[in-house]
């Protein structure tokens, strides 16, 4: 539970840092920010509502949420809003780039941390695996979900930029790097050296 919550808190902080960098964010945050612009709600509240809505989509897919799934749907958005209140906007392009790079690395480590706890995937990840279990390619399913979130968010005015591309190209390899170090295993199970 400690590792799960540390991961979720760090994920919310990294999302706030991506927003503050002002160079573009991950596809789901583009959607959340676009919905926030249209609705007048905060990006964190929109994130919570979107997470709960996506979680409801699990029902017809017969996906079973874990405690991590439910906490993900709530904690990340609340922490994002809290972090946005204390994180200043960088004043120079160099500071924006550094903040973007740090936020992407932190996001990957946070992802590995909460997934490594093994207490359930986030709502969006469970939607992906639920749809893929219906005979669709996981890669294609994930890509279509991400593109749908990105396109919808962009149409609503969400922030798309070079940071969105950096995130898209680097999050997978970075998360893969961190997961072996943060994955909890039962006693006696060795870490895969690959």
With helices defined by DSSP (H or I, 4 residues minimum), what is the helix count? 9
The span between the termini is 27 Å
Give the H and E element order.
HHHHHHHHH
Mean pLDDT over all positions: 89
Instruction: Give the radius of gyration.
Output: 16 Å
SS content category? mainly alpha
Shape: globular
The tally of beta strands, per DSSP, is: 0
- As a percent range, the share of strand residues is under 5%
Low-confidence stretches: none
User: Percentage of helical residues?
Assistant: over 70%
- How does the major sheet shape up? none
Describe this structure in words.
The longest helix has 24 residues, at about 95-115. The protein is globular, with a radius of gyration of 16 Å. Helix content is about 75%, strand content about 0%. The mean pLDDT is about 90. Helix 2 crosses helix 3 (about 45-55) and helix 6 packs parallel to helix 9 (about 160-180). It is an all-alpha fold and about 190 residues long.
């Amino acid at each position: 539970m400690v590792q799960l919550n540390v991961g979720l808190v760090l994920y919310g902080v990294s999302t706030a840092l991506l927003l503050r960098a002002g160079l573009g964010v991950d596809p789901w945050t583009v959607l959340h920010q676009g919905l926030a612009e249209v609705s007048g709600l905060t990006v964190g509240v929109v994130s919570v509502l979107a997470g709960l809505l996506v979680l409801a989509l699990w029902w017809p897919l017969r996906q079973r949420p874990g405690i991590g799934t439910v906490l993900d749907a709530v904690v990340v958005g609340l922490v994002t809003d809290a972090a946005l209140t204390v994180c200043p906007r960088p004043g120079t392009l160099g500071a924006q780039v550094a903040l973007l790079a740090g936020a992407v690395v932190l996001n990957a480590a946070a992802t590995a941390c909460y997934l490594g706890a093994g207490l359930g995937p986030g709502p969006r990840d469970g939607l992906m695996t639920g749809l893929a279990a219906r005979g669709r390619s996981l890669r294609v399913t994930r890509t279509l979900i991400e593109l749908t979130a990105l396109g919808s968010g962009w149409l609503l005015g969400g922030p798309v930029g070079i940071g969105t591309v950096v995130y898209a190209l680097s999050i997978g390899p970075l998360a893969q790097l961190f997961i072996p170090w943060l994955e909890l295993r039962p006693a006696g199970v060795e870490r895969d050296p690959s």
